Amino acid sequence: MKFSNSAALAFAATAIAAPSTPTLQEKPREVQAGCASAVTLDASTNVWKKYTLHANKFYRTEVEAAVAAISDSSLAAKAAKVANVGSFLWLDSIENIGKLEPALEDVPCDHILGLVIYDLPGRDCAAKASNGELAVGELSRYKTEYIDAIVKILKAHPKTAFALVIEPDSLPNLVTNSDLQTCKDSASGYRDGVAYALRNLNLPNVVMYIDAGHGGWLGWDANLKPGAQELAKAYKAAGSPKQVRGIATNVAGWNQWDLTPGEFSKASDAKYNKCQNEKLYLDNFGPALKSAGMPNHAIVDTGRNGVSGLRQEWGNWCNVNGAGFGVRPTSSTGHDLADAFVWVKPGGESDGTSDSSATRYDSFCGKSDAYQPSPEAGSWNQDYFEMLVKNAKPSF
Ligand code: BGC
């Protein structure tokens, strides 16, 4: 997974600061699964006002193992609290669909299970770190073995609420990286695949957010309209599904919510980007989505954006060194279009390997502002996790 944007990357920059009203989620784990009757999510409303993002058992298990490996008792006590924070579960391969049923076993009626749909053919076309299992051309496998299999499970669990982030980076890459042969090759599969996912996952117990990159990506003046049109095209190709609420921004990202002036606003190209923080991105991209004809509410990933000023360039996306956990999931955002701050990227899981001899090595993961050594994308990095805990803002 990565945020690249060759065109826009040439420029670069953003901003941010911690939102004003952080809400800690430290409810004890409950063991009952789902509600007494079928769940109906009204995607014309903010479902996060009613549902709490569930602290899924996979991340909880990773965190608990990490805590056990920490000898400093005060750090361990802080780290233990991370296990109670809600975060999304990534279904990043056909095999990992196997995580879904175990993960929904302990979701109480007032919680919502967050899932990331992430397995398009030719995945991560502008980078290497998260290249996936399906090759360009394997769209029928994506449909039948991946999406259909997930749909079947979600249908079998109508009493549980689900929030889905749809295919991080895919459509944004088609907007800004269409000059790359890999993205050209992936384009039709991305468009068809996302539309298929939206159409088929449109179930009453599901609310969907299509990934829209971040302010330093589609927020450039030249990218706002084409970006909104690309997303709206997929939404309409899917038949304008009722359960689509809007977009997910800053997924696995580092941008601040409302830091003013923005983190990169002194850059020489800053005049070409009005979205110097994620709040400004919603202010600008939201109306563009509306004119393009799609719903424009958003969830924003604040999982790892506790510290600003770490990146040398806005487009640096891999294992940013010095990062800290950000604001805990909450629906108190103070912004009409922002439904919730959520943790999408499970902090501690790597963005990509720093081993330059690995097949999926991406040079962004070897940059001087990237934490090294780092393991393969998705694998646990204990040292990085401990750093996120130490640098968390608000602190644990
Ligand atoms: C990786 C996935 C992983 C996800 C969450 C992505 O960068 O490619 O395998 O599940 O991050 O850590």
TrEMBL record:
Keywords: Carbohydrate metabolism, Cellulose degradation, Glycosidase, Hydrolase, Polysaccharide degradation, Signal. It holds the Pfam family Glyco_hydro_6. Substrate binds at W90, D92, H214, W217, W317, K345, E349. InterPro entries: Beta_cellobiohydrolase (IPR016288), Beta_cellobiohydrolase_sf (IPR036434), Glyco_hydro_6_CS (IPR001524). It comes from the Eukaryota. Its EC number is 3.2.1.-. GO terms for biological process: cellulose catabolic process. The active site is at D124, D169, D351. Residues 1-17 form the signal peptide. GO terms for molecular function: hydrolase activity, hydrolyzing O-glycosyl compounds. Belongs to the glycosyl hydrolase family 6. PANTHER family: GLUCANASE, PTHR34876. This is Glucanase. The gene is gh6-1.
